[in-house]
Automatic annotation (TrEMBL):
SUPFAM superfamilies in the cross-refs: CinA-like (SSF142433)
Keyword Cell wall biogenesis/degradation listed: no
One of the record's GO molecular function terms: hydrolase activity
UniProt name for this protein: Nicotinamide-nucleotide amidohydrolase family protein
Cleavable signal peptide: none
Record keywords, A-Z: Hydrolase
Recorded superkingdom: Bacteria
Alphabetical list of NCBIfam families matching this protein: PncC_domain
A Pfam family reported for this protein in Swiss-Prot or TrEMBL: CinA
Length: 172
């Protein structure tokens, strides 16, 4: 599965609760590995009552070296493509799933700004899901109204992650 989030950031305040209900209804657990969102996805999920039944944990791997040491991302991959890449998102998701013992792992990597990073513009975000049906979605600068703010990028990436998670769980 690939694609854009179905809803604009903030357009569905019930999205986190819908994700938690969907996971609980299928008896699935989830873990996160977050870079640019710095734990915002895990915090958003755990604000929902009942989240403790489905959220196993989360890794905040803001520094590139922690992507390898905490989330298990291959150092050679990081050296070859850098920290902002769809494959790194996939590896983060797999690392979260494995290291937290969850049914699903979701990884987020990208550039929140204010400056580009490694040749990637602000607003670049790769969100991957590891589980029975792996999935990936990406955002880019064109998905944001100018000027792009750090807060808007982080919020949109969390919304896109929630949407990807909900669509994937619903398809299982």
């Amino acid at each position: 599965m690939t694609g854009r989030p179905a809803a604009a950031p903030g357009s569905d305040p019930e999205l986190p609760a819908r994700v938690i209900r969907a996971l609980a209804g299928r008896r699935l657990t989830v873990a996160t590995a977050e870079s640019l969102t710095g734990g915002l996805l895990a915090a958003t999920l755990t604000e929902v009552p009942g989240a403790s039944a489905v959220v196993r944990g989360g890794l905040v791997v803001y520094a590139t070296d922690l992507k390898a040491t905490l989330a298990g991302v291959d150092r050679e991959l990081l050296d070859r493509v850098g920290p902002v890449d769809p494959e790194v998102g996939r590896a983060l998701a797999a690392g979260a799933r494995e290291r937290c013992g969850a049914d699903l792992g979701i990884g987020l990597t990208g550039v929140a700004g204010p400056d580009p990073q490694g040749g990637h513009p602000v607003g670049t975000c790769h969100i991957a899901l590891d589980g029975p049906v792996p999935a990936l979605t990406s955002l880019g600068p064109a998905d944001f109204a100018a000027p792009v703010s750090r807060a808007a990028v982080r919020a949109a990436c969390v919304t896109a992650a929630l949407d990807l998670l909900l669509r994937s769980v619903t398809e299982l």
